[in-house]
């Protein structure tokens, strides 16, 4: 098991509220709880609202917001929380690459260990949804496989 200091540093650096590590017979669980003020501690003058202006005209045309479209296909999701490493690796997959079942797509670094993410089936990489070096959460979509 990594040292207690390394686990505590990771816990703080990633802003986690809970961390559980098991190594053989050894287990470590770190939790952090935040104190919430009770309603009695919040004074009424602190709860002020801004005046509402009612004579403002709405613009005639609203600008349309462009949203990025994700291609159709199977989402390949992160199996654990960690740092995404996919584009800096030698032989890294790119959009349009054909991949085989079991081929490594990226790695996720957690607890100073690299964990490979592999393709669940043959297909073509339609999109890469994570950025190099970004913190990804468990279940976060990483790739779209068409």
Task: Please name the defining characteristics of this protein.
146 residues; mainly beta; OB fold (Dihydrolipoamide Acetyltransferase, E2P); 2 domains; 4-stranded antiparallel sheet; 1 helix; elongated
Query: Could you tell me the radius of gyration in angstroms?
Result: 23 Å
CATH class of the largest domain: Mainly Beta
Order of helices and strands: HEEEEEEEEEE
Task: Return the average pLDDT rounded to an integer.
Answer: 76
CATH homology group of the largest domain: RNA polymerase II/Efflux pump adaptor protein, barrel-sandwich hybrid domain
- Helicity range: under 10%
> How far apart, in Å, are the first and last alpha carbons?
39 Å
CATH-defined fold name of the largest domain = OB fold (Dihydrolipoamide Acetyltransferase, E2P)
Which structural class do the helices and strands define?
A: mainly beta
Q: What is the count of DSSP helices, taking H or I runs of 4+ residues?
A: 1
The total number of structural domains is: 2
How is the main sheet built?
Answer: 4 strands, antiparallel
Number of strands: 10
CATH architecture of the largest domain: Beta Barrel
Which of globular, elongated, flat, extended, rod-shaped describes the shape?
A: elongated
**pLDDT < 50 runs, ≥5 residues:** 59-67
Q: How are the strands ordered across the major sheet?
A: 3-10-8-5
Note the beta-strand portion.
Answer: 25-35%
């Amino acid at each position: 098991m990594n040292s207690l200091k390394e686990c505590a540093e990771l816990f703080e650096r990633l802003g986690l509220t809970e961390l559980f590590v098991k190594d053989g017979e050894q287990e470590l669980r770190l939790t952090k709880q935040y104190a919430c003020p009770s309603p009695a501690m919040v004074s009424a003058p602190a709860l002020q609202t801004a005046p509402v202006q009612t004579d403002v005209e709405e613009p005639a045309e609203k600008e349309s917001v462009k949203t990025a479209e994700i291609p159709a296909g199977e989402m390949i999701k992160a199996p654990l929380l960690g740092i995404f490493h996919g584009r800096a690796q030698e032989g890294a997959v790119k959009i349009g690459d054909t991949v085989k079942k079991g081929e490594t797509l990226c790695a996720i670094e957690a607890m100073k260990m690299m964990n490979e993410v592999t393709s669940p089936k043959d297909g073509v990489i339609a999109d890469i949804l994570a950025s190099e070096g970004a913190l990804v959460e468990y279940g976060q979509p990483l790739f779209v496989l068409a």
